[in-house]
Amino acid sequence: MGGESHDLVAGGTPEQIVDSLMGDRSPRNIRACLPAEDQDFFDRDFRQAMAGATEELDLGPVDDLLAYWWHVARMKATGEYQAVLAEGRRVQADIESGEYVPGRPLREVLAERAAELGVKLDL
Fold first, then answer.
1. CB within 10 Å: which end of the chain, N or C, has fewer?
2. Per residue in 18-64, pLDDT tens?
3. Cα torsion angle, 40, 42, 47, 51, sign
4. Structural domain includes residue 1
């Protein structure tokens, strides 16, 4: 799918978007696979990361940023993002009401998921 128009990918099915993301992790494709309402945020973050990379001569933060946005694009395409937000709201409501919320510490879960994606997080 890497050779197809990026506009087609953005309007594609969740499966097409995920296939595109799996085959092409370029900034242009990640941006095209994001919902329109996220593209300006991606642009801002990417430009800021590239400016920093130019000053520091270090592409590590750019790679981390692209991994983050790749994951967001994939989650939003599949509906997983909304499910995560809904679960977060449910847990937050339980915490605020004084309910015991079993589970692992968030830092541990985030570190594990980041490692699976090859993303370095400073927690």
1. C
2. 999 999 999 999 999 999 999 999 999 999 999 999 999 999 999 99
3. positive
4. no
Residues of 36-60 as b/e, b for ≥16 C-beta within 10 angstroms? eeeeeebeeebeebeeebeeeeeee
pLDDT mean across residues, the chain = 86
Q: Please give the Cα distance from 26 to 36 (Å, whole number).
A: 17
DSSP string, 73-115: HHHHHHTHHHHHHHHHHHHHHHHHTT----S--HHHHHHHHHH
Structural domain that includes position 24: 6-117
pTM: 0.66
DSSP-derived 3-state class of residue 32: helix
| 20: its two tokens | 């595109």
Dihedral Cα 76, 59, 20, 39, nearest 10 deg: 40
Q: 């996220």: which residue's tokens?
A: 38
Alpha-carbon separation of residue 123 from 8, 76, 105, 111 (angstroms): 37, 24, 12, 8
Domain tally for the chain?
Answer: 1
